[in-house]
Amino acid sequence: MDDQFTKQVMTHKTSAVGELLKLAQTDEVISFAGGLPAEEFFPVEALKQAFERVFRMGNKALQYGLTEGYTPLREQISQRLMHRNIRVSSDEMLLTTGSQQAVDLVAKVYLEPGAVILTENPTYLVALQAFRYYSVQIIPVLSDEKGMDPEDLAAKIEKYHPKLVYVIPTFANPTGWIWDTSRRVNLIEECDRNHVLILEDDPYGEIKFAPNDYYPSMMSLAQQAGSDCVLYTSTFSKTVVPALRIGWICGNRTLIKAMIHAKQGADLHSSSLDQQALFQLLDHYDLNAHILTISAEYQRRMQLMITLLHQQRLGQVNWTEPKGGMFLWLELAEELDTEMVLKHALQEGVAFVPGHEFYVGSPQKNTLRLNFSHTSVEEMPAGVERLGRAIHQSLSS
Ligand code: PMP
Question: Its GO biological process terms (predicted)?
Fold first, then answer.
């Protein structure tokens, strides 16, 4: 039966690192690997009350819902987006099972086999996984901490005629980097001129360490320029809880309609019980205050992680201090391969994700991603010390 699978499944590689990291999910290992928010800060009481309110509404609350999602929640999200200068009505929005499903639906309705998409490099591993199921050609664009290199972008648009550019412009996964506004504007101009769609993936944009920092979303800039070349997706996974699996995608009405149709064929709709509960939560709970609290805590954890890394005297190592999000991206001495470092690290009792996983094409092997949001300040010193030992062992082996 194994040889009866689709070509996409047959070419799908199981990741050795993924398997190693699965083994590392024990209490003895301190993990900087997953992109997990801090459980201690989950708004558990507020969520319980939100669900209770839904149950008090009677049996009808447990009925099938609309594929596009619970209308009052779409309206509420559209209100929240106004603070980010994004103007979308509720019929330009689809609620999805996490933003992950939004990425998949875009590929499903817009990318025929062989279509070209451009991505940053490195970029979010599971988006790559989703795209690969549609047999598209993924072409990386040279990228640095300010975004995609404009010259390389222009050259690749001209050469490959891509249909889509997938980007995470604010506090990216895995790098934590933030695109310069000028690079954002440049991408929009290039894509608008060449009829290329941009998928802006923004799960971390609200997790800012300086609350007054403002990074204009690609969506808001495109709207200001009168272009509808951007689809915007985000999620409540990082700001409320991932278990709700509620994300959304918004933008061009015709595309949203196509995605609603595709989603109907896949799952009819995402959990309407959860959507109604989230609506109640947003109506009765100060989510903005909560986001300020978790952002301050993540900043504290990030700063502690950086202080501890300095104390490890790792020699040649580079990082850019994140201004938000959940990740610190490290570049170690050139001769190190972080897949080897991971083996030492797991023996020491600490986990991280080697950079290899996030690259399209040949990886920069001395890179790694550390998550700082999930590990408490009490556990952080032991974790970084173990990591330091693993890096020193790799340097001397
Ligand atoms: N995009 C990016 C860049 C992410 O980091 C994640 C979560 N790790 C997602 C999308 C998916 O998030 P969710 O489906 O939980 O909304």
Answer: alpha-amino acid metabolic process
